[in-house]
């Protein structure tokens, strides 16, 4: 059992974020999630915030600090997609995705780092994607935002590594969520063929890796990219 920590997960009201929050609750941590709508799992505190809005994030952090204590573990998970071919992608399609996925992580980590520096302890976990380094056709905006998280974690590691703070990236592959469930059967089979494990991951398989990274046993891991992709992105 790891030391109980105060954990904040962005975008914790559905999909992988919800599973991450559930796993931290099960492991006995004090858990808060940010959500624009909906709620986190039972046993978690839900605070309203949009990761593109610094003031709203600041207020959300203050509420968590007041109710659960200073945030010791932050999981930047909130993300959006606007997939389309490069030729058809508007500036807004690009900017919106980068501002949420990369800018959102920056704002959350910057605010969390205040308390972490004071405590001389912190775990920063950025949720990227296999396409961040493997690439994905029709995903120039999304893959750029997810690749940027790697540079972010490594720069934070160089800046804050001597203060008991780690920063790592988890890069999931195809996960069984509402999004993948909507794909046509033939397309799902095609994707599974390209994955050495031959299947999609359960959200809990990503969540368990993140909980472990936040725990006492992972204190000497920083600046790493940990794939949870069934072997899809090997070597990237």
TrEMBL record:
EC class: oxidoreductase
Entry EC number(s): 1.1.1.100
Pfam assignment, any one: adh_short_C2
Keyword Mitochondrion appears in the UniProt entry: no
Molecular function GO labels: 3-oxoacyl-[acyl-carrier-protein] reductase (NADPH) activity
Entry-linked InterPro entries: KR_dom (IPR057326), NAD(P)-bd_dom_sf (IPR036291), SDR_fam (IPR002347)
Keyword Oxidoreductase: yes
Ketoreductase domain ranges (all copies): 5-178
Superkingdom classification of source: Bacteria
Keyword terms, alphabetized: Oxidoreductase
Family to which this protein belongs: Belongs to the short-chain dehydrogenases/reductases (SDR) family.
Entry-linked NCBIfam families: PRK12826.1-2
Protein name: 3-oxoacyl-ACP reductase FabG
Provenance organism: Lysinimonas soli
